[in-house]
Amino acid sequence: MRIFNTQVYGLRESLIRSGYPMSTEIPDMMEAIAQADWVNVNDRASRLGQSTPGSGHDCFLKGIRVQCDIEAPSYWWPQFQRYHFADIISSQSKMHRITKFDISSQCTEDVHPMAIALAEDHIAKYIRGEITIDQMMANIPMGLQLTAGIDLSYLQIKTMCRQRDAHRLEMWRIFKAWANTLPMARMLGVVV
Q1: Residues 16, 53: one domain?
Q2: Sign of torsion, CA 125 131 133 139?
């Protein structure tokens, strides 16, 4: 698994907005950012971010958006897609490009060489018209890595990290380690 091309958006704005529940007047955002007492803003955001998931006190984390690319094996993607709130911006298409992929280099090192050879054989048979696309696709290893661009919020990442904290798949530990690299993630309770 590889997570790369990470961009974070809306961090300062969401930190300011974390104070809206106790505000009587809403300032211009650019002025608020320029004039903010960042020690107090960060302290408030830290307290709110550390609140119990589902309590609603950490909802400002929704405004901190993260976009990145994730390259992961096919068997990991259904677990990620369980989170219906995580948007896949675009992804590689196994259906459209399987005959063009270099299967041996696109699979994880855990895929047995015989499985790769079998997949390559099925792809060649499909290209020659000897088998159907369904027969070919059914014989592609689950360790084939595909890359997708995703869009998440800090709140969604917080949920995922907690729910998958003790998961047996190494990919979730990689995901959590990546989450730890996000700006202010630990301070805001995104990761513990």
Answers
A1: yes
A2: negative
